[in-house]
Amino acid sequence: MSSPSRVVITGVGLTAPNGNSLSEFRNALLTGKSGVQPWEIRYFGKTLAGICNFDATRYQKRKDIRRGTRAGSIAVYCANEALRDAGWNWPELDKSRVGVYVGTTEHGNVETETEIFEVSKHNYNLDFWTHHHNPRTVANNPAGEVTLNLGITGPAYAIGAACAAGNLGLIHACQMLQLHEVDLAFGGGVSESIHTFGIFAGFKQQTALAHHEDPAKASRPFDKARNGIVVAEGGALFTVERLQDARKRGAKIYAEVVGWHVNSDSTDYVLPNSERQAQCMRGALKKAGIAPGEVHIVNTHATGTNMGDEMEAAAVNAVFGDFAGVNVNNTKSFIGHAMGAAGSLELAGNLPSFEDNVVHPTINIDELDPQCAVRGLVINEPRKVPKVETIMNMSFGMLGINSAVVVRKFV
Question: Which of 235, 346, 363, 406 could anchor a disulfide with 78, C-beta 3.0 to 4.6 Å?
Answer without folding.
Answer: 235
